[in-house]
Structures are given as C-alpha cells and as structure tokens.
C-alpha cells in the first residue's frame, strides 16, 4: 500500500512539473544590469496575511546569482536584493531618468520617505491628531499633514522620537495621550 501511494504521488508531481514546463509565459524573466524594474515590497497586513506592493522605479545594479539581483531604488537610494520572481520590467535602459522624473515619482507614489516630522495639531473637522511631515527630496512647501495614527504604524521610531523631543508642546502632549505613546 505504501509503495503504491509513493509511486502515485511521484507520478502526480511529475505530471504537474511537466504541465508547468509546457505552459507559455511561465519562465522567469532575465534582467540585465541597467534595466529599470519594479520590485515587490512585502508587508504584513494582518497576523496571518501578507500583502505585496510594487515599489520603484529601481535599477538593476548587480547580479548575485541567476535568479537574484541587486537593485537600487531610484527615489530613496536604498539597495536591496530581489528574486527574479519579485521583479517586473519598468522600462528599458534607454529611459532618461531625470531629477524631475524622480521627484514626480516620489511625490505621486505611495513610497514617500519621511525626512523629519515638523509639528503636531488636532484637526477638529477630521476628529484626529495629525503631524506635519517634511518629505525627503521635496521642498518644505510640499510638507503635508498626515494622520498621526498612520504615521505611528508606518514610522514608529520617528513619531516616538518626535514626541520625546517636543514633549512640552501642548499638541504633542495631547497626541501622546491619544495614541498611548509611552
């Protein structure tokens, strides 16, 4: 009985592999140094669920192995390794990446990088505490008021440092109490 089960399992797996090999579009793309890509940023949505968000643009800077590439985020300047299955082409290397394009992508994507937190306030119309954020690579005229609760989830160290540094400010005291920051 066990031999038969082992044999059947082997045959089923072999048939699955053969089926996958014959499907069109199942090959992993190969990337060259200099290619512009988007990479999958994985983050935890709930305790048991993960979400993927396409981040970038990034440029392939090195090949670690046949399937692993070193990529540099063109907006944030961060480097990371990424598996080929977590990359997709953004444009070919003839794309002219200007400073204006990078600032546009930084401003219009969800991947803003916090430079520093400016001040706090309570917004009575929205009924929430907000923190003014200065974004990396943007002018101070483009600073924005963001929900403090969201910032605490996204950049907890920056928010807690801001609260410690501005502990005498009345708006910061109220924010600290509302968000239960210790």
UniProtKB/TrEMBL annotation:
Annotated Pfam families: Chromo (PF00385)
Domain Chromo: 112-166
Source organism superkingdom: Eukaryota
InterPro entries, alphabetized: Chromo-like_dom_sf, Chromo/chromo_shadow_dom, Chromo_domain
UniProt name for this protein: Chromo domain-containing protein
């Amino acid at each position: 009985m066990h031999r038969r089960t082992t044999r059947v399992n082997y045959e089923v797996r072999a048939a699955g592999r053969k089926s996958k090999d014959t499907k069109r579009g199942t090959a992993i793309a190969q990337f060259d140094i200099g290619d512009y890509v988007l990479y999958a940023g994985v983050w935890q949505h709930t305790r048991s669920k993960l979400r993927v968000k396409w981040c970038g643009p990034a440029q392939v800077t090195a090949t670690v192995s046949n399937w692993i590439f070193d990529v540099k985020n063109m907006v944030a300047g961060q480097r990371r390794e990424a598996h080929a299955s977590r990359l997709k082409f953004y444009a070919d290397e003839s794309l002219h990446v200007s400073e204006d394009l990078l600032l546009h992508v930084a401003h219009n994507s969800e991947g803003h990088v916090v430079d520093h937190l400016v001040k706090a306030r309570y917004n009575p119309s929205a009924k929430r505490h907000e923190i003014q954020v200065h974004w990396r690579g943007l002018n101070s005229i483009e600073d924005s008021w963001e929900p403090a609760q969201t910032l605490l989830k996204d950049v907890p160290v920056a928010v807690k440092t801001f609260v410690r540094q501005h502990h005498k400010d009345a708006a910061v005291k109220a924010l600290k109490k509302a968000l239960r920051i210790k």
